[in-house]
Amino acid sequence: MEAPTGTTIRCVGGIAFDDHGRLLLIRRRNDPGSGQWSLPGGRVEPGETDETAVIRELREETGLDVIPGTVIGSVRRGPYLIFDYACTVAGGVLTAGDDASDVRWSEAADLAELEARGELVDLLYVTLRDWNALPRA
C-alpha cells in the first residue's frame, strides 16, 4: 500500500546481537527491498508505542522475544521514518516469519560480504558503521 504524498510513516527496527556479537538480520519478503537483508522491524500501528511495535515486529519476523532499549539512530527511507532500537534477546526460537523469508545471525565478515554483493538494503552497512553498531564477531 502506497502512502499519500507527503505522509510520513513511522517505523521501528531492532538492532540485536547474540552472545557471540553477531547481528540479527532478516531477508525481506516484500518491497521495499524484497530479497535483500535488513534489520527486522516495521510500521508502528495506531495506538502502539515504539517499544510495543519493536517487540511485536521482532517476534513476528524472527520468532525472538526482545527487550527494547535506547534508540541507536533514525533514518528516512522515502515516506518511512525508521527509529532503530538496541534490543536484548530474552527468548524465543530463531525462525523466519511474517515479512521475512529468511533470518540469520551475521558476523562482521559475513555482513561485509553481503554488502559487497549488494545483498543488504541500501545504506544499511554505512548506517550501522556510522552508529558504531556493526557486528563485534
UniProtKB/TrEMBL annotation:
The residues covered by the Nudix hydrolase domain are: 7-128
Q: Which domain of life is it from?
A: Bacteria
GO MF terms here are: hydrolase activity
* Keyword tags: Hydrolase
Q: Which InterPro entries match?
A: Nudix_hydrolase (IPR020476), NUDIX_hydrolase-like_dom_sf (IPR015797), NUDIX_hydrolase_CS (IPR020084), NUDIX_hydrolase_dom (IPR000086)
Protein family membership: Belongs to the Nudix hydrolase family.
- PANTHER family recorded for this chain? GDP-MANNOSE MANNOSYL HYDROLASE, MUTT_NUDIX FAMILY PROTEIN
Q: What is this protein called?
A: NUDIX domain-containing protein
